[in-house]
Amino acid sequence: MMMKKCRYISMLTLSALICLTAQAEPVLAKDHSAGAAKIQALNDQLVAANEARDLPAALQAAEKAVQVAKEEYGKDSLEAADTMNNLANLYLYLKRASEAEQLYKLAVLIDLKKLDKEGVEMAAIYFNLGVAYAMQKKYTAAIDILNKALNIRLKKIGPDSAETKNVEQMIEELKKLAYPNEVKI
């Protein structure tokens, strides 16, 4: 009888320890406030540099933001994906579409794991990747990924939204470039 009580107490103690550990986890989690502040400061620098048309400074701030996000939150974090998306947008502006494409692809992989696969956020990153493909004259790849963006936007924000119409128009223009000799019936 004494042995059974000891086991019961041990199991009870173990259960209590597990509960305490589960409750303490947020307390033990890494404080990201310093990293978030660094990223925000770098984003502010990027905006200021962009407004001043100081593209090298904007590029430097965007690249540093990606580095900080990866170090602070991890290379597969949403924060890393967001900063990569920002840097890729700058690369597109600088006509460095192949570099933008690589960053967008990495961001898509992260976002697919962490976000709603049918959410408007995914439509936005798909659209950005489509633009990168189009700038490199990878028209069929651009059309394919833009169709993903279009399908999400049709479901989530409807056919009459400006964003949806913009994607539809871009797809039509790319089809003309990809298939110039195609006859419409």
Q: What is the helix fraction of residues, given as a range?
A: over 70%
Question: Which parts are unreliable, with pLDDT below 50 for 5 consecutive residues or more?
Answer: 1-28
Secondary-structure element series: HHHHHHHH
Intertermini distance = 87 Å
* Major beta-sheet overview: none
Global outline: globular
Q: What is the tally of helical segments? A: 8
State the secondary-structure class: mainly alpha
In percent, how much strand structure appears in the residues?
Answer: under 5%
- Structure summary, number of beta strands: 0
Q: What is the residue-averaged pLDDT?
A: 85
* Computed CA radius of gyration, to the nearest angstrom: 24 Å
Account of the 3D structure:
Helix content is 81%, strand content 0%. The chain is mainly alpha-helical and 185 residues long. Helix 5 (97-114) runs antiparallel to helix 6. The longest helix is centred in the first third of the chain and has 27 residues, at 2-28. Residues 1-28 have low confidence and may be disordered.
